[in-house]
Amino acid sequence: MTQQPPTPGEHLRTALALAASGVPAMPLRAGKVPFGNCHRCANNACGGRPNMKAPGPCACPRPCHAWAAATTDPNVITSGPWRHAWLRAEAVAYHPGGAGLTVVDLDSAEAITWARENLPTTQVVPTTRGEHWLYIGRTKSANAVRPGVDIKSTMAYARWLGFGTGDMADLPDVVRTLAACKPGPTRPAPALITMPARSGECPHRTPAFLERGIGMAEKRITEARSAIHATVFRTFLAVLSTHGRCGCLTEAHVARLFTAAQAKGESPRHCTDAWTNARTTLGL
After folding, report:
1. Among the four residues 14, 37, 202, 207, which has the most C-beta atoms within 10 Å?
2. CA 257, 261, 267, 272 torsion: positive or negative?
């Protein structure tokens, strides 16, 4: 018999159970990403950074600002703004650092093998692509500390997939060291653009053509209502197919595209991957 996916009511009950045990919880929408900022924070008007980054100075009804929205307050979880989110939620997430925990996210068989050879045995939770290894203790969050290995603790969220098996061990120094050696999720940077410039005059002739193209790309991403991953990739592909070979794109232009994508729930890692894949597709 095919297992039925959890209902919105089950997600809400899971969040309340996590909150009661001291684990800050929050809803996730399709694609395992947080719900967008509230209307007061649209386009980061409050100065905050959505997704896995620092919240702004606002005092908005939550959920807002991803990991910072996670809470143990049952009154917030069942409040009006949150009720609408739970009706559309496809999963429950939690803030590991807020619970004094660290998740070592292993996304491949090779990463799991590395963990078994180098990390102490701890509580293990199966995931779609690999395993989450949970440890007692907080550290800085960082992506891609090794191939297929992310560290999620402070200022980050992880999907709740159950209790797993095994007893939770203390956070080992090797994980803290790996996190310390990588930039955390609070300082994402777009990929450096190293496009070969054509000789002679740029065929776009005036900055207005490029500015209009970047503006249209930002708008396409911002107005997307579904298939965000695909929209971001197609938009990056369109920009690069027009502007990628003449040398007129700058890091500032790419940063604008990455910012628009992250405001829709894309992680810095997804943005970098989409940009790289678009360049590879075009042979750049």
Report:
1. 37
2. negative
**pLDDT tens-place string over residues 81-96:** 777 788 888 999 999 9
Give the CA distances from residue 243 to residues 186, 234, 275, in Å, rounded to whole numbers and listed in that order.
29, 14, 13
Integer Cα distance of 184 and 136 in angstroms? 19
Q: What predicted TM-score, i.e. pTM, was given to this entire model?
A: 0.60
- Decide: 12 and 77 in contact? Cβ < 8 Å: yes
CA-nearest of 34, 168, 166 to 94 is 34
Where do runs of H (alpha helix) occur along the chain?
Answer: 8-20, 74-77, 80-88, 109-118, 173-180, 207-222, 228-243, 251-263, 268-282
pLDDT tens for each residue of 145-185:
999 999 999 888 999 999 899 999 999 999 999 988 865 44
The CA distances from residue 12 to 9, 35, 194, in Å, are 5, 15, 47
